[in-house]
Amino acid sequence: MDMRRLVGRNVRRIRLEKGLTQEAFAERSGFSQQYLSSLERGTRNPTVVTLFELASALGVSHVALVEPDGEVKAAKPMRRGGRRKPSAEKEPDDR
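== Helix-turn-helix transcriptional regulator ==
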């Protein structure tokens, strides 16, 4: 998965959901409209600080910008030793 394209898609989707043009988002975020355009096209590689600032300007969590399909999903439970349970393992039935 190309993270630059994923971030660009999420930024564009959220910006449009908020009813913002690139120009309005540029004013709100402090980044140029040209930078935001290239970011949305997936040609920029934003820093962690940039992601945080963009998310703040959009009024969302920074996680929303890097999450596939824009959905924050709960992590799978961890096993002892910090390893995730394999998905083929079944949970015991409490019946």
